[in-house]
Fold:
Amino acid sequence: MPAQNLPKKTRNHSAWGMFMGFVTAALGLFPIVYSWAAATITTVLLGWTLIFVGIAQFVLVLQSQTPEKFLLKILRSVLYGICGIALAFFPIEGAAMLTGVLGTLLLVQAVLLTASAFQRKTLEGWIWFLAAADANWLLGILILTRWPSSSVWAIGTLLGISVLMDGICRIVIAMKMRGSASNVHPSIQRSAQV
Structure:
């Protein structure tokens, strides 16, 4: 690949990553803001939020240019979607069961983020993946230790924090990618143009 295309591709990829990070962070704020609403309304809103998070994660996987962990990333987006559909269409009947599923989902997310963090250990900003993983570990354990008495507002708040952390992590990583793409040495850019 020509060296002059690398910074442009990196900038384009980081812009897309930043956009998806802002979308994910905004979706993470949504359940936090509505955490004190009535239980049924909160559950339905949380369900639709998870559906949109699942769609956003799926779109992000399709935009990824590397095939590594493709199936795991697809599985994560499908799990978000399934949890969202169950919450949106069966809010009262499935609240206790979905609390356990949601706690488990956060633990699965924590495992994936921990693995991602250690695979990216050589990259600047990898610690943000580890911070997001730690938040997911904490939230998943907190939900499961209080299950089934965890209330819907707690689930909305904790899940919102998890999704918000994921979005912030994506934004920081994309900004670091963009910064490293602009720091390509001028002699490399000149030699690529010759």
